[in-house]
Structures are given as C-alpha cells and as structure tokens.
Amino acid sequence: MEDNILDQSAPMRVLVTGGTGLVGRAIQHVVREERGIREGEEWIFLSSTDANLMDAGETREVFQKHQPTHVIHLAAMVGGLFKNMRANLDFWRNNIYINDNVLQAAHEVDAVRVVSCLSTCIFPDKTTYPIDETMIHNGPPHKSNFGYSYAKRMLDVYNRAYHDQERGRFYTAVIPTNVFGPHDNFNIKDGHVLPGLIHKAYIAQKEGSPLVVWGSGTPRRQFIYSLDLARLFLWVLTEYQEVEPIILSVGEEEEVSIKEAAEAVVEVMRFKGQVTYDTTKADGQFKKTASNAKLRQYCPSFTFTPFKQGTFIHSTGNLRKTFWENSGECGLVFTVCLVLPSIALKETCDWFVANYDSARK
Amino acid sequence: MLPIDIISCKMVLQLFLICTFNFSGLLLLPMNTEPDYSASPKSTPMRVLVTGGTGLVGRAIQHVVREERGIREGEEWIFLSSTDANLMDAGETREVFQKHQPTHVIHLAAMVGGLFKNMRANLDFWRNNIYINDNVLQAAHEVDAVQVVSCLSTCIFPDKTTYPIDETMIHNGPPHKSNFGYSYAKRMLNVYNSAYHDQERGRFYTAVIPTNVFGPHDNFNIKDGHVLPGLIHKAYIAQKEGSPLVVWGSGTPRRQFIYSLDLARLFLWVLTEYKEVEPIILSVGEEEEVSIKEAAEAVVEVMRFKGQVTYDTAKADGQFKKTASNAKLRQYCPNFTFTPFKQALKETCDWFVANYDSARK
C-alpha cells in the first residue's frame, strides 16, 4: 500500500487530543513500548489542562504552538448511558465546539491528516444488522444519547466538507465499538459498562455486598481492548487513505451480552458474592452489532487480544513481521505475540486494583 | 378586547382575508370572525425578535404583521439584520438578545444560496450556519424566551427517499451531496430543539420546513440566488438585451413553490399556536408541484418575455424532486388558502421591476 499523500521521509509531528484518556494512554503505550519514536518525530499528548478545546482561541493557540503534521483527535465529552440521558444538550454542544475548533485549527496549520474518533453507539437505532460504515446517517440514533451521537456523526460531515471545499484534505475517522482498558473512567454513575462493572465488583468484594448490574443484562456489545485500538489507530494514521470512516472492532461473533460481560468480570476479579440485576434501570440500546469487514479487507491477519482467557481468536501462524517493517499489509499480527499472551479484561482489572487510588472514578 | 383562548386556523385565515392586502388591489373573500394571536392564556404582550428580519421571509413577516395582523398594545416586533449583530459571533448574539429580551424568536438568519453557491462552499455553509444556530438558540434560552421558531427547508431531506417526504423523515439518510453542508446544519436545528426540550424542561423550541420560497425582497442574484428569482432576473435582462433566456439545467426537476407572504402568515400561526417540538412542513400540496420548465414558462408569461428560451443542460440540475406532504399542516389548518402561483409570481415580478435598482442582485 503506497502512501501517495504523505511524504514518508518527513518526520511526523503528531498531536493527540484527549491524549491522557483511555485511548490516548493506550496510544502512548503502543508508541513508546512497541512502535518506538522515530528520529525527528514528535508525539504530543494533550490533556484538558493544556488547552480547553471548547474554546476556539485556546485550541488555535495550542495548534500554532505545536504545528502538528498529523492529529489524532480523541478529545470529547463522553460518558455512559445515564450521564448521556441527563445531558443531551451539553453533549451535543460541547462536542460540536471541540470538533469544530480542532478540525479548523488543524486545517489552519496545514496538518495533512486528522483521524477523529467516532463510536458505534452513534448509528441509527432502527437498522439492519450488522451495521457498517455506509449507514451512519441512515436514521436517528438511539434517543438516550442523541446529543453525543449527532455531534460525533457530524465529524464525518466535517471530513467530507473539508475534502469537498479544501482540495486535498483527507481527514478521516475511525469507529470503535465499546472500548475498555487501563486508564478508563471507572466512575459507576458516569462511566461505561465494563469499567463500571469492574469498579462495582471491587467495592462489592470489599464490602461483602451483592454486585448489582444495572439493567436486564440482555443487551449485547462488542468490546475492543484499548491497546488493540491503539495499534489500529496508528495504522489508520499513516496507511488508511479514505475520507469514509472505518469500523475498528472485533468480529460480530465476538459480541457478548452484558450478563456475559458481568460474569467475565466476576470470574477475573474472583468475586464470590451474589450477582443481581436491577431491571428498573435503563438498558440502553439492545445491540449495535457492527461489521468489521472493511477492516478485515485491509488487515486480514490482525489479531485482537482475547477478551477473557483461553484461545486466541485467530491463529497466529508463523509470520514474524511487525507493523513497522511491513507497509504492504496491516502487519500488526504478531505484536501481540511479542508480548505475553494477554487477557484484556484481566489486564484491565489488575490495573484498576493496582491503581485504585489514582484511577478516575 | 379579543377573547383569550386558543384560536383555530380558520379564524386566522378569515382575518387575513378581510384585509385588502394584494398588490393588484383585489378584495378577497369576506370574513366574519377575528382571531386571537396571543401566545398563552396569560395577557403578557409578546416581544418578538426576528433574526434575518430583512431577508425574503423576514420582510414578508414585517408586511403581514404591520399590514394585516397589526401590532397589539405593549407588543414589540424587532427585525434584526446582519448590521445589528453578527450572529456567527456568540458575544454579539448574546448582546443583542440581552438588549431586547425577547419572549418569542423567529429565527430566519442563515447563510443561504442556490445550488451553485452551495456546491462551491459546503464547509462554509456547514460551519457558519452551525455557529449562527448555536448562538441564537443559546442566547434565546438564556433570556428565557418561551418560543423559538426556526426555519428549515425541504432541500435538507434525504436524497434517497420515498415520496412524499414528511416531517418524520428528516434524518433518514444523507442529504443531496450538492448542499450537504447547509442541509446538515439545518437538520441540526431539529437536534437542538429536541435537546433543549430534553434537558431544559419546558422548552418547546420548534421549526418549520418550507418548500421553495419566493417573493419580493428575494436575492435575485443569478449566480448565487434560488431558481425562481434567478429566472425572473434573467428574463428581465434578456428582455432588455434582446437575448435568449437561458435556463440552467434540463428544466425537468420539480419543485413546490410557496409565496413568502403565505409563509409569513403561517409562521405567525406557528409562533403562537403550534405546540410541538417536532417540525411542521409549510407548503402547497403535492399536486401543486411544477417542473423548472413550467416555472420558466410561467415567468415568461408574467414578464411578457418574447424572446427565445433555451436550456443549458451542461449545468447541474440539483435534486430531481423533493415532493413534500403538507398533510400535517392541513390537519391543523384545513382551510388555509395559498395565493395562486401565477398571481404570486406576478406580484414578485412587478416588485422586482419596480425596485430593480435597489433589489438584491
């Protein structure tokens, strides 16, 4: 795969907004510990303390300061189901401000690439399955988080508009399914389902109380480990040449119910108490099954870290290439092999327990 | 003193009909009841702020308010233009709203244009209109305006769709690519309305969806304006110069045209009587849809153009049709009578010829 947009001999200056969040930290880890930083390259990981991206002036200032050639745009106002339901207007407005400021600032410093981050929760509520990249705008999103959803959908509109009006702009976006991993927001009220379950199990274990799962446990989700997402993000940053977004996810067959996810958390955390389901609490969308066919076309051999334990999802075979040596294919296959066989949920739980005091919660 | 209770559209119509409004001076049907425009059971006079108050629709509302409805005691009607405030700037918008403290807002201000202008600048249409809409709605909310009626357009509906389109279909697919920037920005007004209603209890901000509007005070610029004023202006010039009237495109696309004065009358009804957050299409019926060719022929007839009419098929046609259902309007206002197309066209052409020097072109 030839990159005919980027001058690969020129070192990148990569700015990562939301650089200290769940995905940002994962990218930091992969860049430093796996890929390495090339000579002349610069990787800047912004946090909200560096600039308030809801403010156009501050955003422009930080972009002018760093003059990035590439941008990974992760910063957003995010939250789990219940936080979204309370504040759809804020989720809509704040995220539109952030996205508008970041994209325009990137354009003004002539960044050649911006990769933004969408989510499968933004797809139409009434839809056929599996959902794919062409379906983003084919109907209203689920009403629980329509503010966030529309703001994220509009990133795709921005990308098309920059491409349409500003010739040569190939800003694009990825669409992960439910992300989890170290450095997540483990706040029970405002966080997402998996870190919420982990935190609840931790507390329930300490207090000898039941683990109460909100909702019926029947909704289904595909979970992607933050480190896998980070590896794929880096591939998209330099190799993926479309304005159309790309779904980054495990396959449809890896979809699990919230109940199965809760049981996996119980097992990994060695929780011995009772597990109950509070069915008075909202379930959110029943499913958001996404197709990763496009990813598989580009990266047929990419292996995801197993969710729980046991078998790898795909056979690792005998190839020994790494991503950084292979530009003809998404050669991220065996980065995982170079690390100990990892169990994504276990790593996340271990991290949480070890970093309980400092973890966001 | 007018009875303060909910009026029906029938009475509104009758009030309009009693007025001898008509450029050609015709007296229309007699009426026998007087409607009540009060916003609520309380007797607080309205302070109505109209953004885009000097544009095509704004001028029509000015006319209808002053010449037909009349301004009640204690009421205030403020028609803003771009010289009063740059609504793309949050500070200026807030300032003008704080100054006037409106109880009601008719939000017409937007960056608008015909097919060819949109095709050149989708990014600008998207961003500028999002800024305007965000600033106006938030400023209105902050001064506790009880009603904001924004203005969408049938051109924002999904390109791939069944016909006739109706109010429930706005988000059911991507809009036509020629003006996707404008379309998404307008669609997001509906998201704003839903979000204000969702998060800020009691907010019933809403929107109307007119089809192609035309009338006096339009933008008659041939390059940037809409099709009907463009045809009128071209016919005027062609007549003067003895050259052909060149219609851009094949002439086959179909449109429903609504006279600006009819739209204004309906806007005033919506402002005080329409109580839904969901938008409402304001249009003549589907059977009134005409082709661009038929519209051109009507212009030729009204302008008494004697020269040749040709069709430049190298130019883009835009969307083939956008046939909208006015069933919801008809449920609310079964007896509202639209000004006949040729009559409305004549009034518009007469106005243009009489005001050629000062007309926007």
3D structure, described in words:
Chain B: Pfam families: Epimerase. Chain B: Residues 48-285 form the NAD-dependent epimerase/dehydratase domain. Chain B: Its EC number is 1.1.1.271. Chain B: One of its GO terms (molecular function) is isomerase activity. Chain B: This is GDP-L-fucose synthase. The structure is a homodimer of 361-residue chains. Chain A has 361 residues and is an alpha/beta fold. Chain A is built from 11 helices and 12 strands. The first copy, chain A, has helices at residues 22-35, 56-66, 81-86, 88-108, 146-165, 193-207, 226-239, 258-269, 293-298, 335-338, 344-354; strands at residues 13-17, 42-45, 70-73, 113-117, 172-176, 178-180, 211-214, 220-221, 223-225, 246-248, 256-257, 275-278. Chain A has a 6-stranded parallel β-sheet, sandwiched between helices. Chain A has a two-stranded parallel sheet with strand order 6-9. Chain A has a two-stranded parallel sheet with strand order 7-12. In chain A, strand 1 (13-17), helix 1 and strand 2 form a beta-alpha-beta unit. The longest helix of chain A is centred in the first third of the chain and has 21 residues, at 88-108. Chain A is globular and about 60 Å long. The termini of chain A are far apart. Chain A binds chain B through residues 86-90, 92-93, 96, 100, 104, 137-140, 146-147, 150, 154, 157-158, 160-162, 164-166, and chain B through 120-124, 126-127, 130, 134, 138, 171-174, 180-181, 184, 188, 191-192, 194-196, 198-200.
